[in-house]
Amino acid sequence: MLIAGLGFVTLLSLGTGAVHISPRAIFAAMFWHRPLSETERLILFHLRLPRVLASGVVGSALALSGLLFQGLFRNPIADPYVIGSSGGATLGASLGITFFSQWSSFGFSATALLAFVGSAATMALVYSLARSAGKTNVVTLLLAGFAISTIFTNSSYFFELFDRTGAGNRVLASWLHGVIGIPAWPELAVGAALLGLATVAAIPLMRTLNTLVLGDEYAQQLGINVEFARVAIILIGSLMTAVAVSLGGVIFFAGLIVPHVARLMMGPDHVRLLPVTALAGAIFLMLADTLARTVFAPSELPVGVLMAFVGGPFFLYMLRKMKRSYTV
Amino acid sequence: MSCLLRVDDLHFDYQGHSVLRHATFELEEGSCSALIGTNGVGKTTLLRIVAGVLRPATGQVRLRERAMETIALKEIARTVALVPQHLELPFAFTVEQVVEQGRTPYIGMLRGPGRSDRMAVDRALDLADVSSLRHRVFNELSGGERQRVKIALGLAQQPRLLLLDEPTQNLDIGRQVELIDLLHFLRDEGITILASMHDLHLVDKNFSTVLLLSPGQPLIGGSPEQILKPSILEHAFQCPPDRHPLLIERAELYRKEAR
């Protein structure tokens, strides 16, 4: 059902925009080789398709890293933004955009690599701050994550000062608002491949995540190498965050909402949640991005800004709900 | 009867001060023992060491005559299960999903649970008498029900030794009796039991051996009659003999017997 949904949303997103192209025309072009007009072709293959695919990859990556972090930290309000991993990725990527924008090979840009390093390093930092006497304090974790996330995201603005030519400025600024641009095909392919790789690596850890939900001590008592599992999950989650950040910039709360909705649909078993979250994340962000670029068409609202308006209230709702049902 | 667990001169330090000193004891296969002592004396620590979660500073734990540190984590988890005091879940896992986690030491990373795993879960739910709760959400259960589910989780590990950390805490007297009956039933099924206990009234008739930890003293073990003497408890719990009903009651009991 979700796969059909993904197909439908892809078509919808492709057709919608400042210039409308009917799904029928797209179908016709796909299956009956009925040619589209030159303008339509240009819009479809060079502008819209890469963007729609990119928003799918970004949505999937954010939702999956949210799922991993929520399970690992045993907390339904953890997401890559809240616990700081996206802040680190943002800082790393800003460095890349400002200073190493020329460097890239095989589709691996310096921006993407630095985003991964920033994300993983921040997670290690936040995690060590929250850990004392062999226990992870969840409240400290969230607060430390939020503080570091804010510091890092905002220090990215300093890089504007270093940019003498001003060329990188516009890239950086739009990027910090969370705009899914129109990525070059190699960049998109590398992002999708890395996400695929990270997802495959996450599959055997899903059962472990179920056990970790019982608590570190319980998991250890059940024969799980907790340190190893934790490092593996943090690395995989950071890789996913880096993919999302390097393609889509700063997008709040998608990693929070999607796993929550998936859990309402499927229950808390991570083995079943993984595929559902991946698909739902892609659908969710494709819709959000389509909405962002059509509401004020021909102007565009950055999808990051849209998500802040939708995600912020949702986060507050979760916070209230948590206060009622569970003690943190 | 053969010796399942042998603990030899165990020491453990926690943040600079020593928690356990000279803890030496053995557990016979099929025995049912209580571990008693004041708050903070190291009961939980001792259980965690025996479960392989903590490593002692010095001393040795031998499981079926094999040194604990030479046994793989998963193998320990197939022999020893620890039922901790607290289990809080952040998500709405059902009872069945919780108990399934007990199969973790039997399941590889890629292979899912098989027929034998499902049968072990069914049997664990049955033994702990929580089959009827299987589709309920764990977080929504009462204290007594949760305690039983935690025990079912331990039983799904198919252990030879079941460790319980204050299993009767926060239970009303009816649920306490049910829990003791469950422990006796499991002992009759051949599972060796070691439970830390606060309520000494429950220890007296229900356990064959009592292990007593006192602050700064070596662990002593014996039958309930040998250990639950007012003179011993008074010092071990640092409690004036005329202030607590239990000590008064037991003093009377021993006086009657002396006559």
What is the gist of this entry?
The complex is a heterodimer of chains A (328) and B (259). By secondary structure, chain A is mostly helical.
Task: Describe this protein's structure.
The complex is a heterodimer of chains A (328) and B (259). Chain A has a single domain (62-264, 298-325), classed as ABC transporter involved in vitamin B12 uptake, BtuC, CATH 1.10.3470. With 328 residues, chain A is an all-alpha fold. Chain A has 15 helices and 4 strands. Chain A is globular. Chain A has a two-stranded antiparallel ribbon. A two-stranded antiparallel sheet of chain A has the order 3-4. Helices cover 74% and strands 2% of the residues of chain A. Chain A has helices at 2-15, 23-31, 38-72, 85-99, 110-130, 138-155, 159-162, 167-176, 185-202, 205-212, 216-221, 226-248, 254-266, 270-294, 303-325; strands at 104-105, 108-109, 131-132, 135-136. Helices cover 37% and strands 23% of the residues of chain B. Chain B contains 10 helices and 10 strands. Chain B is globular and about 60 Å long. Chain B has helices at 43-50, 73-79, 95-100, 115-127, 143-156, 173-188, 200-206, 224-227, 230-236, 245-258; strands spanning 3-14, 17-28, 32-37, 58-63, 66-67, 80-83, 161-165, 192-196, 209-213, 220-222. In chain B, strands 6-7-8-3-9-10 form a 6-stranded mixed β-sheet, with helices on both faces. Chain B has a 4-stranded antiparallel β-sheet with strand order 2-1-4-5, covered by helices on one side. Chain B has 2 domains: 3-228, Rossmann fold; 229-259, no CATH class. The mean pLDDT of chain B is 91. Chain B is α/β, with parallel strands linked by helices. In chain B, strand 4 (58-63) and strand 5 (66-67) form a beta hairpin. The A-B interface holds A 74-76, 133, 204-205, 207-208, 210-211, 213-215, 217-225, 263, 267-269, 271, 325-327 and B 15, 48, 51-53, 72-78, 81-82, 84, 87-94, 97-98, 101-102, 104-105, 107, 109-110, 112, 139, 157.
